[in-house]
Amino acid sequence: MPKITSLRMLPLDAKHRWMFVAILFYGILVKNNIVGSSDTNDTCRQKNVLFASAIESSYQFPSEVVYNNFTGMKLCFNIKPRGNNKTPACCQNEDFNCNFTIRNGHENDFWILILNNETLSKHDIVLMKSPDQNYNCMPSSNTSTSFLLKIHQCLNTGVQNIRLSQNSFCEEIQRYDEDACKGLKETDYNLTISFSNKSHHCVPCKPPGKKPGGAITFPPPDRNNGTGISVEDAAKIMNNISLLLERMVNDSTATITIGNIKGVITKLPPKNQTNIIIGTTTSGDINILEDNDSMMGFSVKIPSEASAMAVKRNSSFAALLVFPGIRQDDPKSIFLNNEAIGIEMGTEISNLSHTIDINYRNVDKNGSIASCRSWDGKGKKVIWITDGCKTKKTNGSITCQCSHLTFFAILMSPTPGNISSSDFTSLTYITSIGCGLSMFFLAVALFMYCLIRKGKASQATKILMNLFVSMFTLDFSFLVNESIANLGNFGACVAVAAVMHYTMLATISWFFIEGLHFYFTLWKLPTDIKHYMMKICVAGWGTPAVVVIALVAVRQYDYMVIYTKDGNSAKMCWISNAVVHQGVNVGYYTVVFIFTFIVFIMTVRKIALLKPAEGKAQETSSIRTNAFSILGLFLLLGISWAFAFFSYGPLLIASYYIFTILNSFQGLFLFIYYFNSSKITREDKSFTTSGSTTDTSNTVITNPH
């Protein structure tokens, strides 16, 4: 009995096994032989399939829907037999959409398919390159087994067909092509299907940008010379732009044409503001764009914050105009494309936390420096400034990030570089090494002072230690300046620029105090003034603080770019206005230099008039001490900084190297001077004590330290 039961069960088990094998075989073939579908889950779900071909067939494919009860899968064969253009009945079924066009390309190498995304919402499309070869895929019956065994032949019998699904039919999307989309709807796609390399190129027929609903055209202004317009007239046009709202009637957006001036105006919704993107399209028009639209030329992104601010202040529109032919007064500099952009929203928009981004793509700078400028449209004199705008340059594009609305332009100026890249690199290495060594030895000197000599230090030594502190901080802030500038944090950049400027002015101030104290010592003037050290510390540290606080208040610290002759550059944080830099720093040092140089000359003259000491030992000691005093005085008074005055003409590069070496290594030199001066002072005291007689005429200039 068990044996009979097992024999009876065998056919049923075998049938199930063959069905499982058939399903597995079908799945493998579908996955390996359908080209163009990236969504493998469509096969697993047994999605409906519409078969189509640009080639007529010699056979009669089923006209009705082919339905499989086991999987629920439906097939429609839109394959027309030769001489019969009648649409198959399955195309009238609600589960299929045959409203698309297939055209045969050159020698059947490629097909052109016109469809929209809705066509593939209910089913996939399998394109049969050779329908006659696929005809034997027709199921012999509607049983599930025969259906599964036959269906894979429709998908592939020796040649690979192409399957299009909703999620993958337009993976390689191309730019909008007016010729390819001529006569088509904006919702259509033009697909070029290639069977040789099993690929397809998709051209969306929606033009980039939302086409404005209306068009407003005016003749050019009377004073327009045919190529441009004065900025004064441009300001008048922008001030009256709100009058155009009356001509828009029911249109939410409209293009504006005033001679060769082009632009767009759009009404703002009362609520739910979004970002507004305006730019030039492939056709050269200026339109409202969507986030995924391709842009050519320039684009402007107005943040939703600006629109919300405008609506809150009872304004209801945003407008942008491009004014060509705007000229820069400086003949050496020009505006990019000789154009300015005016943006108006009917009210003052400023201090935005999300900036207005004006982006120009594929800019050929030709070695020029790009700088974003703005003009408020007010006053008789047109002044283009950099306030409120940051310039960012990446991969051939220039972006102006501005926190206010007004006129904008990008100024292209010639590179002011006057040094080669090799010299710039060498000077950078010298500066880094010199500042690093100076910081180390200045720290050692301060350590020696604090632990050894602080209790019995003279006034001159205390003044020298203040100079060491200012120089140490100056070297440190200089070394970290470029790194902080490259971080892109504006607040940190302002902070490091202010610290470096403050310590530089403090260093110059202590040069002056060194000269003043040395003058008192040289002429034996009394220095026992009440609170003498406190007063000179207030002068040395307080005066620079007043200058720096004033510059911070007027926002003079910003990013600055140093250029070389071949276009290379380095960024740092410093005073952005060259006039302010010259007036404050050069002027400040010039006053100090005049005084310290006079003290230096007086000291050298006094040393030269001294009689040499008698005796070989005394004479050697006197010459060594005096020579060392002169060299130390040269460094203490900051005379070496004067080489910056010779940074012109044939002495330019040489003065750079001398200035860099002397000043970056100045901390090291002053440490050596401080150490040796202490030693010489002890030797002089020892020599004076051991000597039996001393001629008052044999005087040397002893070091005050």
From TrEMBL:
GO terms for molecular function: G protein-coupled receptor activity. Keywords: Disulfide bond, Membrane, Transmembrane, Transmembrane helix. GO terms for cellular component: plasma membrane. Residues 427-678 form the G-protein coupled receptors family 2 profile domain. GO terms for biological process: adenylate cyclase-activating G protein-coupled receptor signaling pathway; cell surface receptor signaling pathway. Residues 272-418 form the GAIN-B domain. Residues 687-699 have a biased composition (Low complexity). This is G-protein coupled receptors family 2 profile 2 domain-containing protein. It comes from Perca fluviatilis.
